[in-house]
Amino acid sequence: MKSTKSKGLSVEAVVATGVGIAIVFLLKRFLPIPTGVPNTTIDLGEAFISFLAAIFGPAVGALVAFFAHLFNDLSWGDPWWTWIVADAIFGFMIGFSRNFLKLKTEPLTKKKLFQFNLLQVVANIVCWGIIAPLGDILVYSQPVGKVFLQGITATITDVLSVGIVGTLLISAYAKTQTQKNRLTKE
Question: Which residues cross the membrane (predicted)?
Fold first, then answer.
């Protein structure tokens, strides 16, 4: 008998990707909170990317981050590819939290939230503190001081955005899930 398990994204994941792109685009486009550093904002879209990636995994996280960032950049003018790619890598990295969070099948614990936030801090440092600034230097010949100021600012603000809003979204979602052994017979 042939296996009916398909490879690739489920229908649910594809729908979540499309809806996620739209929501993250709207958050990035219409709710950016200025930081005082040019072209750098407090980005609530990163919290929503993290939320979707925690549920659906690396592919959804990367696709949502890539396309939402691309569409946002296009709405302002030209795409800034180094940051678009860094965002996709962030979504991909944070998607691995799905493996230990197991939001659909296991209760959410403080330990799992700590692991999630440790992962998001590392992912933010790698993507915004290293990849995006180095990409700006190598691809766009941007000044070192400027891009590392932007990268450090984005790292800090995204760590806070994901740490607060992303954690709240994940916690709220976990409370809606019926997990194995949660229901007891009365």
Answer: 6-27, 48-68, 80-101, 113-135, 147-174
Judge whether 32 and 57 are in contact, CB under 8 Å.
no
What residue segments make up the domains of the chain, in order of their start?
A: 11-176
Which CATH fold would you assign to the domain 11-176?
Answer: Arp2/3 complex 21 kDa subunit ARPC3 (1.10.1760)
What phi-psi label fits residue 143: left (phi over 0), alpha (psi between -120 and 50 degrees) or beta?
Answer: beta
Buried b (16+ CB within 10 A) or exposed e, 147-186: bbebbbbbbbbbbebbbebbbebbeebbeeeeeeeeeeee
Q: What digits encode the pLDDT tens for the residues 91-146?
A: 999 999 999 999 999 999 999 999 999 999 999 999 999 999 999 999 999 999 99
Residue 8 has what pLDDT?
79
